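From the methods appendix. Each design record in this collection lists the tokenized structure first, followed by the designed amino acid sequence. Records were kept in a plain field format so they could be parsed without special tools. The example shown here is representative of the layout used throughout.

RECORD:
FOLD TOKENS (199 positions):
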């Protein structure tokens, strides 16, 4: 996988797709946190805690959440939420790029909501302090996802019907799918315009 300096350069050369935002649009942001580890580059995922009524309960995700009135912008929201959820303080100086915003789907519906992913690079092996909203923090290598080596499909219930979804089987047996999977796909597409998402 590419070193972080090359990833930053390629993200700078890409132009994220912009979506129309109205006064009614709910805005959120996530942090795609990278680190160089050994000879590879790793990305941080979290496993959300099980919570009744939460459409993303128990899913693998990037740290993040809704923008609050005190957040200067969406990148600030991603940084604040990352600190609140896993105790990791990331600075604006560690921001290396932005990916296209995603429209989440919950139970087959697409609410008027945008999730903006921001890419950060850190060094070392920080200790995490998980909030009650997070069950686990998992580093995983980018290379097997980029090559498709850990790509798989898994059934998830949609309206009570088992439906197969594309995703990645990452460290600990966790399954990355849905919006988080789409963010990973747009990340690889930004690095390589010829990247072909799995069908």
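DESIGN:
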């Amino acid at each position: 996988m590419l070193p972080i300096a090359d990833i930053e350069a390629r993200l700078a050369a890409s132009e994220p797709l912009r979506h129309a935002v109205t006064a009614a649009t709910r805005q959120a942001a996530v942090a795609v946190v990278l680190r160089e580890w050994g000879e590879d580059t790793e990305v941080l995922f979290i496993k959300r805690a099980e919570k009744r009524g939460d459409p993303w309960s128990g899913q693998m995700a990037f740290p993040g959440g809704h923008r609050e009135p005190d957040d200067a912008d969406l990148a600030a929201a991603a940084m604040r939420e990352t600190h609140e959820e896993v105790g990791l303080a990331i600075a604006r100086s560690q921001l290396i790029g932005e990916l296209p915003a995603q429209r989440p789907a919950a139970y087959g519906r697409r609410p008027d909501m945008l999730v903006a992913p921001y890419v950060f690079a850190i060094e070392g092996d920080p200790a995490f302090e998980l909030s009650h909203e997070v069950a686990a923090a998992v580093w995983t290598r980018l290379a097997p996802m980029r090559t498709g080596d850990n790509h798989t499909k898994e059934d998830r219930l949609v309206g009570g019907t088992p439906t197969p979804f594309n995703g990645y089987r990452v460290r600990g047996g966790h399954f990355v799918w849905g919006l988080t999977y789409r963010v990973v796909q747009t990340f690889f597409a930004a690095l390589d315009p010829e990247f072909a998402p799995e069908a």
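APPENDIX NOTE: The beta strands are 26-37, 40-48, 60-61, 64-66, 95-98, 113-122, 134-141, 151-158, 161-170, 174-177.
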